[in-house]
Design goal:
- The protein is of the alpha/beta class.
- It folds into two domains: about 150 residues, Rossmann fold (3-Layer(aba) Sandwich), CATH 3.40.50.300; about 90 residues.
- Helix 6 crosses helix 8 and helix 8 runs antiparallel to helix 9.
Length: about 250
């Protein structure tokens, strides 16, 4: 186990779902944090631990001796022996405060025996001990484990649009505005041949999405035909400037 920690907003479990102790006004129930981004899960666990312990700077820096993290490689099984080691350590008093926090990363990788061993600890935890379980799939945990924890789902991170996707969207938005369309197409003249091919492929994807959303409007279909013809032309060494000039003109 390595030293590490994090804190989050005060959490309150639904009635009957988890036992709640008081720790400085913050719910002390075991917490399951579920989300896609493991870094975000670790950060949220540390913020929650900092709130429990009350020493934000040391906890968030991963330097607090009373915060321990059980880590495992992706796909590796967390075995019962590792949970038993936490149980033995949990019986010891905190070294530098009133609360000890255990963070279990990839908790869904615990095998059945490990989860049952943890369950016994969750049912009767030592008073100064807090638990945070990090997982991408809370459903992989035993129902009995989930029932003793507060489940908090972190929102999925929004994927930033690639530059060519943003450029393609702007071009499609400007199809009915000849001046804007021409300006955007002219700006692509500074792209390399490969970059322009990526942009044109993104334009096709965007246009097909718009057809699904808005229907097969004639302007969309005409532009798809134009762009589909320009991609092979680029492969056959048509100049970037010539292709951009064609794109700047509205369909006939």
């Amino acid at each position: 186990m390595s030293s590490n920690s994090k804190s989050s907003d005060a959490l309150s479990p639904p009635d009957g779902e988890a036992r709640v102790f008081s720790a400085g006004g913050v719910s002390a129930a075991p917490v399951i944090l579920e989300g896609e981004d493991e870094n975000a899960l670790r950060g949220e666990a540390l913020r929650l631990a900092a709130e429990w312990i009350g020493e934000r700077s040391k906890v968030l820096a991963g330097l607090h001796v009373d915060v321990s993290t059980l880590t495992s490689e992706p796909g590796a099984v967390i075995k019962v022996e590792e949970i038993r080691a936490i149980r033995r350590d949990a019986l010891l008093r905190p070294f530098d405060g009133e609360v000890k926090v255990y963070i279990i990363e990839r908790a869904h990788q615990m095998n059945g025996n490990a989860q049952n061993a943890l369950l016994r600890l969750l049912e009767e935890p030592p008073e100064p001990v807090r638990f945070v379980l990090l997982t991408q799939n809370a459903g992989a945990l035993l129902p009995t484990v989930r029932s003793r924890c507060v489940l908090r789902r972190l929102p999925s991170p929004e994927r930033a649009a690639a530059p060519e996707e943003a450029a393609a969207g702007a071009f499609v938005d400007a199809l009915e505005k000849p001046w804007e369309r021409a300006v955007i197409a002219a700006s692509w003249d500074r792209q390399s041949r490969d970059a322009l091919k990526s942009t044109l492929r993104a334009v096709l994807v965007c246009l097909r999405d718009r057809c699904l959303r808005d229907g097969t409007l004639p302007l969309y279909i005409e532009t798809i035909d134009t762009v589909s013809g320009l991609l092979p032309a680029l492969e056959q060494n048509a100049s970037v400037g010539t292709v951009c000039g064609i794109l700047a003109l509205p369909p006939q």
